[in-house]
Amino acid sequence: MGRRARVLYRQAVRFALPGLLTLIVSVLGTAAAELPPRRVPFTFERAAPKDGLAAAGCPPGTLPDGNACVRLPGDDDGEGPGAPELPNAHRERGGRWAPYAQIPRRPERPLGYDLYTYPIPPGLPGGHHVVSGYDLDRPDAEQRRGRTLRAVGHGGVDLPQARGTPVKLVALEHQKGDGDILYTGPLFGTTVVTRHTLREAGQLRDYVVLYGHLDAVAPGLASGTAIKDGALVGFVGDTGSPELVHLHLETRRVREGVDIAARVARSGGAEVLADDATVVCDPRNVLPLR
Ligand SMILES: [Zn+2]
Questions:
Q1: Are residues 55 and 16 in the same domain?
Q2: Residue 187: inside a domain, yes or no?
Q3: Over the stretch 264-277, which tens digit does the pLDDT of each residue have?
Q4: 110 is in which domain, residue-wise?
Q5: Residue 84, exposed/middle/buried by CB under 10 A (0-12, 13-18, 19+)?
Q6: Do 56 and 14 have their domain in common?
Q7: Which of 33, 59, 135, 188 meets the CB 3.0–4.6 Å disulfide criterion with 99?
Q8: Is residue 216's pLDDT more than 80?
Q9: How many structural domains is the chain composed of?
Q10: What's the 250 CA to ligand 1 centre distance in angstroms?
């Protein structure tokens, strides 16, 4: 390359590159803003918390593959037909890989969200319920993120409805007996957390259900009391998610041997999200079919 060509090349790099980067960023931003409706970015929600695995790289039993961490072939979960807990990871906005545990949808559970029972009537045209689904089992690039989102990924389903719509308890698939109220108070905005014992894969397992962003908790709900299928839990609102009126519904499996009620009583509602207490779960595994 001649001297003049080199100068031209350097000038081109110096002036064109920042413009090109700006263009790429703005195109990506536009693309993010124009994602399909089920990925509407809601603010003030956190994804599954970190589980204390390595800060960088992929969690044990997985290998990096492009943007994702994939399971090693032949790495059987050893739990038969139950709901296996699997690792996944996503790249946070700061660039750090965040590994976490999660329970993906079991293959025999239908994919379509509209086939399941929810605590509120459908709020979308055409009788649809879910505007933003569970994505923590997906590769990093397919998890929910947006310019205003602090957290990457979505560990529940978002159900838009009118403010004040009554939210009614859904008894879970294979539930034994009534549920009970584990916690009411701030978590995902104003939140009610219920506990349910399920017979699964030949054993009893506890799950918790989070009803988030409520306008208000149902009068008289008290921790430790039983709650029956269809009972009033609270009212749809936008606490912790201003202007985006919807119900955030999240299901988590309580880890074996954990007395979640005792932990919440001792240390507060955030214990429900602690990695050594519960594992986030695709709600389709436990919501009853319609
Ligand atoms: Zn949500």
A1: no
A2: yes
A3: 999 999 999 999 99
A4: 38-285
A5: middle
A6: no
A7: 59
A8: yes
A9: 2
A10: 8
The residue written with tokens 């029956």 in the block is 228
Characterise 220 by phi-psi region: left (phi > 0), alpha (psi -120 to 50), beta (else). left
Residues 6+ away with beta carbon under 8 Å from 147: 29, 32, 33, 41
Distance 58 CA to ligand 1 centre (A): 25
**Bridge partner list, 114:** none
Does 21 share its domain with 97? no
Report how far ligand 1's centroid is from the alpha carbon of 22 (Å): 31
CB atoms within 10 A of CB 67: 14
Alpha-carbon torsion 155, 159, 160, 166, what sign?
negative
Residues with CB under 5 A from ligand 1 (ion): 45, 156, 158, 248
Indicate if 27 and 80 belong to the same structural domain. Answer: no
Tell how far the Cα of 158 is from the centroid of ligand 1, in angstroms.
5
State the distance from the centre of ligand 1 to the C-alpha of 12, rounded, in angstroms.
45
pLDDT at 110 over 70: yes
Global model pTM greater than 0.90: no
- Average pLDDT of the chain? 81
Q: 120-151 pLDDT, tens per residue?
A: 999 999 999 999 999 999 999 899 987 666 77
